[in-house]
Specification:
Elements lengths: L1 H16 L15 H4 L21 E8 L4 E7 L4 E4 L2 E10 L9 E10 L7 E10 L13 E9 L7
Antiparallel strand pairs: 1-2, 1-7, 3-4, 4-5, 5-6
Length: 161
């Protein structure tokens, strides 16, 4: 009898939790006048000499073929791609944190294309996104045969030796 009472009390508590609270309504506000006419900076970071221009950076990408346990490093500049067997690795961008930032990391925007089984030229995109050297679990390449990861992004900031 005591168990039945405890069970009924648990069911009653769960039933009371099922009501979803209503979301607050958005509040319409106006943008202050001093912020309405803000123009973007006239000097782009690359023109100001802040960091290496994108086309001069180099990403080192690790490529693993899980089928035969062969691993190799690919050095690609943003905009380049390289074919290794049945896979094409593309790099669109390469970044690393500035030396004065605390959370150091390097990353690249990578695309992985794999040749469709039984085809000579039909590649299928299996991954497209940012990969980070120190945070590989943020974005994971899920493919049964190939794995890619960022090993480095070579670029410089002003004041670095």
């Amino acid at each position: 009898m005591l168990r039945a009472g405890a069970l009924l009390a648990g069911v009653a508590l769960l039933a009371a939790c099922s009501d979803d609270p209503t979301a607050p309504a958005p509040v319409e506000t106006e943008i202050p006048e001093e912020l309405q006419g803000v123009e973007p900076p006239a000097i782009v970071a690359e023109e100001a000499g802040i960091g290496t221009p994108m086309e001069e950076r180099t990403a080192t990408i690790g490529l693993l073929n899980k089928r035969n346990n062969l691993s190799q490093d690919l050095e690609l500049k943003p905009g380049e791609q390289q074919r290794v067997g049945d896979v094409i690795v593309r790099v669109s961008a390469c970044e690393r944190t500035a030396p004065w930032e605390y959370d150091k990391d390097e990353g690249a925007f990578v695309q992985l294309l794999v040749l469709e089984r039984g085809s000579d030229s039909d590649f299928r995109k299996v991954f497209s996104g940012w990969l980070y050297k120190n945070k590989p679990s943020i974005n994971v390449v899920e493919h049964p045969i190939y794995d890619v990861w960022v090993k480095a992004c070579a670029m410089e900031f002003p004041g670095e030796e």
